[in-house]
Amino acid sequence: MSLIELGQMKYFEPSRRIRKNSDRSESYEIDLPRLDTNRNSIMQGIPKLPLKTLSLGSFFIFILHWLVKFEQVREHGSFYDLNIAVEKDFQPYGMKEPELFPVTGVRRIPKIIHQTWKDKMVPRKLTSWVKSWVKNHPDWEYWLWTDASAREMLADKYPWFLSTFDNYPENIRRADALRYFVLYEFGGVYADMDMESFKSVDPLSLKYSCFLGQEPYEHPVLDSNFEHIVINAIMGCRKNHPFMKKVMESLPDFSHMWNVLDSTGPHFLTLHYRQYQKNNIPPDVDDGVYLAPAEYFFPTIDPVKFFWMRTQCAKFDKLTKIQQKACKSLKVKGVKRTIPSISFATHHWIHTYLDLSITLKGPVEIHTVVPHVKIYKSSKTLS
């Protein structure tokens, strides 16, 4: 047999010879390799590749396959092809009827928008969303909390918390904690910078003294098998609300938690919301807390979760009842959803540690975005 090389690939070509037949005709005889049950003999004819090369190749093929599948689900967001039976009378997760809001009355939450960033130089990618809050709330104050002004405020008004604040291992924990103190001290509405406003939250500010947002219904169900996770990306509260007092005073007791979600983030906030609800305080009274439907502030599912959700729902028979309901909802509604008219805002799910465009697009000084911005000064004045 002759060995033929083609680029980096090698294969064996059987050798042929002419045979004279008895009737003087000619035919070809082909010598095929004899099958040897000895593994070493068989492997002698196969080019050897380093184990490291094979491992890396397999790894990259796996990653490429995963990325292709992720992109397909991200682009199309369809769960329709999954083998999941959906009853005709099935009711997916979501609001069943619109809520009625007052148009006049005593305002319960002050007209202040709070946002945070490390300094006055705000990423250009976020500025249009910042402006949306100013545009839809023209008679509201806008406060930006930088790392420096945040610490100054805490030093002035809550020095007992400084040790915990300074010893947090990540900046995100400080950003999480700050928003609770700001809402307790000043009142108003806090919104992450990747939240885009569609219309004024005045109706909520008239009806409730404190409101919280929740992630899309399917998020916690498929992630952790429970319903309704409170997310701190947007919150509104009156000044000195007892719920915010409870939350901020509990922060030191949870500072040892290794996961930021449990220490200062959504899991932490969800726990305290559930505990507070045991008081059976109606949401529309002065000390009440209202958990807004996901449609109000989080009408879209985080694209990062698309592939994971599809993977989970592919194991439909092994899921719990509420997880099966979530999968049926996804099959009916899909994951790429149109924002409903009842939405006050939407979350763009910008994961700043993954999104290079946050940095690449460059920063803009906050005064060029919001000329009337207010920043806390330790002298007790605002600039």
Automatic annotation (TrEMBL):
Keyword Glycosyltransferase: yes
UniProt keyword annotations, A-Z: Glycosyltransferase, Transferase
GO BP: any one term: mannosyl-inositol phosphorylceramide biosynthetic process
GO molecular function: mannosyltransferase activity
Gene3D superfamilies the record matches: 3.90.550.20
UniProt KW Transferase keyword: yes
Pfam families: Gly_transf_sug (PF04488)
Gene Ontology CC entries for this record: membrane
InterPro entries noted in UniProt: Glycosyltransferase_domain, GlycoTrfase_DXD_sugar-bd_CS, Nucleotide-diphossugar_trans
PANTHER family: INOSITOL PHOSPHOCERAMIDE MANNOSYLTRANSFERASE 1, MANNOSYL PHOSPHORYLINOSITOL CERAMIDE SYNTHASE
Protein name (database record): Inositol phosphoceramide mannosyltransferase 2
Gene name in the database record: LOC115231739
